[in-house]
């Protein structure tokens, strides 16, 4: 059956019978990994029927009855439909229109797949005993694994949740505890009842059972806040608590809507598939996204925690209070939270200069996959929820949030806030679709929001704006601009897509002010600029807010060297000029020699984010240069490019230095080490030795030291790294070590690392991708990983689940850096033969990327070699 047929066949639940309230009791048994459950669901029958259909999977339902308004009881016949994850309950007489209650008894497994109600493995603080807790992960469609329910986002209801657990374990759910009593059947157990939830979707229900410590506070509006941590590590919760207590009131004010429930808790879960999940009132996190060790966490980790916490708390309004009608509009939910998280962090922590980082981490990030022909629009019609993992990628999150950023800039903050408030007010406790937000923002701003936005959300890709010609007379310049879809390998756009582009231009005479602002809604437009001298530079896309790349003439690009070097341009603009040129070189619009020359204007750059973007582009180019015989000359170029900033930063932190400097240092050290700077390699080895002997390395540079010593070390070094890994009690430290292991250039060490990741009991499933990606950091490692994936693919599918997004990561992150057609064909043939639908799009993207890389080498290799030789 084709994917198209499956889409057609998927039908949402009928509206004949709808739930209004659930009364749920769950009793987990952590010794056998089973749970007992009871649920009474209050129903509204809209049309007479003798069957009720709802979702349930991997549950054994052994009792079903309906209580009618008249107090009559009917027993139901239970029929499970495993393939469609549904249960049909039939009655021997019609249910008439009106209210009734459906009661179900069921048992299920506390699984080990990080979905539904699943188990978490942890070690006691003394390290001597392994124990288990249990927690939930229901988005998008796994609530049905925990209890029978109408598991679609628009069947909103209220929930009364009761947990029956051993007394020594905490029982936590979305709402505050209403009562806690001894369990009559067993004095060692307790019954915990929670307050009734607001009207909400099933995917936001959460409950956790286990051993936890916590820290607590109240925010400025009196909302109770706790951060739950592993036992003995409650000080690791303070940082996230501090952020949450600032961010929650910020949102309440920004949306002008009170946070709707009495508590906002956050909890670190030891086994967790995503980064975090916004369950209303009880946000669950992977440990690395919530816990910060005041002594040993890096600045990078602190910033990540700030961003993730701000993202999840934004969902408490945008997503939880107002929910998309169906998964097709999930992009808006995630895109919005991925934009406003930056607004909140910038407000609370301006020192992170977070909007500049947005351009490197979010904006420039989606521009790469979205230039591929195998891309997809942000808004994709979704049938079965199983399609979500396939579609939810950098484009949904990063392009989604970049579109929101452009829209916010286009209509202005006042209109944006007003429209947003009205939208959230109108749809509180309800479901909605994207165009409802557009119409509220249109009303508030008097601008054609829907018209402008649809070209960005409903078609894939984005434009390249080319400055085609310029005419200068006296102090006036006439500039002609053209737009066409930018395609990664430079091929023509057969569909001839066009966009409505908010264009901004600014010039040398007034570099901090937009000289011209215009909505480009034609394939070609002409703009007149006044008060501009012949040799003045012009720059399009002020602060890189518009979703387009720019191609300048070589003369115009040369003019921009000066404002790059003297930093007249903002970091956002400096960053995107080189990022655009690199993309244009990949597409064959110009030679990579132009890019290498342009980068020399950045030698005195001091901004962390600009360097981060350059480093990312240089890493892409390095992975190509590895397949040439002049890679050593390219490494010398890297050493020269990064030498000034490295000397300035050194190895050790200065007092009260900017947090961004603390993040820049390890990045530069790592590049210099990988480029073969012997003094840096020796210093890294020396510091590593001291670290093993108890003189600990500064957490901010640990990652860099581990990578360098792993790359140039032997089996003994690896043994030391593994020992540190096993001894580390902080997941952040474990992941740092894991990432470094496979970065060796010794094939045996890489093979042993793969074994350590996948075939020992040392690495949690959720961390395996981090270790695997480390193994692909060289062409030697890439080949070994590809061989490993082919040999073990079916085992991985079985272990992670055939619809798991982990499989997508393995394909995307491990196979994109090859540079020969033979490999591309191998990859295509292999994945054609194994038939794993969830990776179909990822495989297409990988093959397209490899083809593009092959063309770059064919086109530019000789010129790059000549340029590097004469340096």
From TrEMBL:
**Localization per Swiss-Prot or TrEMBL:** Cytoplasm
* Cofactor requirements of the protein: Zn(2+)
Please name the catalytic residues of this protein: 312
Tell me which Gene Ontology terms the entry assigns under biological process: peptide catabolic process; proteolysis
Q: Which residues bind Zn(2+)?
A: 311, 315, 334
Q: Name one GO molecular function term.
A: alanyl aminopeptidase activity
Q: Where is the Peptidase M1 membrane alanine aminopeptidase domain?
A: 239-456
One term under GO cellular component: cytoplasm
List the catalysed reactions: Release of an N-terminal amino acid, preferentially alanine, from a wide range of peptides, amides and arylamides
EC assignment: 3.4.11.-
Q: Which InterPro entries match?
A: Aminopeptidase_N-like_N, Aminopeptidase_N-like_N_sf, ERAP1-like_C_dom, M1_APN-typ, Peptidase_M1, Peptidase_M1_aminopeptidases, Peptidase_M1_dom, Peptidase_M4/M1_CTD_sf
Q: Which top-level enzyme class is recorded in the Swiss-Prot or TrEMBL entry? A: hydrolase
Q: Location of site Transition state stabilizer?
A: 397
Aminopeptidase N-like N-terminal domain sequence ranges: 18-204
Pfam families xref list:
ERAP1_C, Peptidase_M1, Peptidase_M1_N
- Record key words, sorted: Aminopeptidase, Cytoplasm, Hydrolase, Metal-binding, Metalloprotease, Protease, Zinc
What note does UniProt attach to the cofactor annotation? Binds 1 zinc ion per subunit.
- Similarity-based family: Belongs to the peptidase M1 family.
What protein name does the entry list? Answer: Aminopeptidase
Q: Which organism is it from?
A: Rotaria sordida
